[in-house]
Amino acid sequence: MALVSPIGKVKREKIWEVVGNDNVKVNNLLDDKYQPRNSYIIVKEACSMVGREMPYCIVTRNCEHFVTDLRYGKAESRQIDAKPGDLIEIDRGIYQHWAIYIGGMEVVHLTTPNGDIALETIGKVKREKIWKVVGNDRFKINNLLDDKYQPRERDIIVKEACSMVGLKMRYSIVNSNCEHFVTDLRYGIPESRQVTTAAAIGGAVVVGVGIVAIGALLASWLKDDNKEEKREERREPRREPRRHYNWQQ
Description:
The protein is built from 8 helices and 10 strands.
């Protein structure tokens, strides 16, 4: 899903030309929240904007923002395809940041201090509006492990995510980055394909708030972890893995 599309244009057309064969209804959805402006002012301002070209952004400047701004003087949009508990993948260019959608155009995500690059630090769980987190980057709903693990109940995911807001916890690119955080909430199993991909390609550099690493270094660390696990297995029987990862330090 592209957040910022080519410049949009304000048009004046017959309603049937716009609707086509789709369903339509009158929906002054924010009348219970805001006082509508005078109808004469709304129509006059709308007509004055016909033909104007302006930036279009699905998160901050879409068609719903346009009409709510005209009616209420407040640009708001309640539409997003995500359902509570869905994972949101945000393309930062050379890495992906991850958040979990909780409804109401809000997400919960694990961040590093001031968004700084860090191999290991103390991160913080934040609850923010999705457009504040996404900015002008591209994003998509990506429940990437649904084919591998059974997702937990949506209300449980959201409740647990919200309960963690404000917590400070260990952040590591190897085993507790933003992707580990959201997959643990959705599946009860922390997993990051960014880490495994970086380790697999070796030598490739992946940089960003969500993950900062040299692939070869990751591969080395993961290899060392595997060796340590094998040593532990020789010492004592392997225990059953916990269903849910303990993030809090």
